[in-house]
């Protein structure tokens, strides 16, 4: 099933789809639409010139099928009867074209507005990304600064600990040396008394 839609969501059938919809052959559809056009009814065509039938057009053909089967009715008489109030004049076509042009103008304005808003949003996103990148860079610098501070503090602590340990060891050596000198000054029997 081949269905064509326009921007207002109207559905259009081609000749084959219309033939299926009303239960006749494509050659019968051709005979019918030529009669309609002969009596002044115009059907829409696409850019390639192919006929397009709206739901209203399909209903006309269904009405024709019913009316032509009445007693004393011929296909041409039925077509005349159906379209006497529905003939599309050239003025109507011009109005449709004007309305379509106005619709296109309105849509173009909306598209322009949307594109402008889209550009503004792109700029906003770009600005936000720049701010985020700057914040990340600042956080990275702060982190490296804190990391360097912690490293320096640990190195200073380690140096202080090593210096303190050496001083304690030196102090212990001096005390041991001093004790040993004191003991050497004592007589051998005084050592045992202590």
From TrEMBL:
Q: InterPro entries given for it?
A: DUF3967 (IPR025052), MerR-type_HTH_dom (IPR000551)
Q: Does the keyword Coiled coil apply?
A: yes
Domain DUF3967 residues, every copy: 154-192
What are the alphabetically sorted keywords of the record?
Coiled coil, Plasmid
Record flagged with keyword Coiled coil: yes
GO BP, sorted A to Z: regulation of DNA-templated transcription
- Alphabetical list of Pfam families matching this protein: DUF3967, MerR_1
Q: Where is each HTH merR-type domain found?
A: 16-78
Which terms in the Gene Ontology molecular function aspect does this entry carry? DNA binding
Q: Which residues form a coiled coil?
A: 115-142
Question: Would you tell me the protein name for this molecule?
Answer: DUF3967 domain-containing protein
- Organism from which the protein derives: Priestia megaterium (strain ATCC 12872 / QMB1551) (Bacillus megaterium)
Read off the lineage from the record.
Answer: Bacteria, Bacillati, Bacillota, Bacilli, Bacillales
């Amino acid at each position: 099933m081949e269905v064509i839609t326009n921007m207002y969501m109207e559905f259009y059938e081609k000749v084959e789809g219309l033939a299926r919809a009303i239960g006749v052959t494509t050659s019968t559809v051709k005979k019918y639409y030529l009669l309609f056009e002969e009596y002044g009814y115009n059907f829409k065509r696409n850019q390639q010139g192919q006929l397009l039938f709206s739901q209203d057009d399909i209903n006309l053909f269904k009405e024709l099928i019913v009316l032509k089967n009445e007693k004393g009715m011929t296909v041409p008489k039925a077509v005349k009867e159906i379209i006497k109030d529905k003939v599309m004049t050239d003025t109507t076509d011009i109005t449709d074209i004007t309305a379509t042009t106005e619709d296109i103008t309105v849509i173009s304005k909306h598209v322009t507005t949307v594109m402008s808003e889209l550009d503004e949003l792109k700029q906003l996103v770009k600005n936000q990304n720049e701010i985020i990148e700057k914040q990340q860079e600042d956080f990275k610098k702060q982190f490296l600064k804190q990391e360097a501070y912690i490293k320096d503090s640990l190195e200073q602590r380690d140096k202080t600990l090593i210096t303190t340990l050496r001083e304690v060891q030196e102090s212990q050596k001096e005390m041991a040396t001093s004790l040993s000198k004191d003991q050497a000054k004592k007589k051998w029997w005084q050592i045992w008394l202590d």
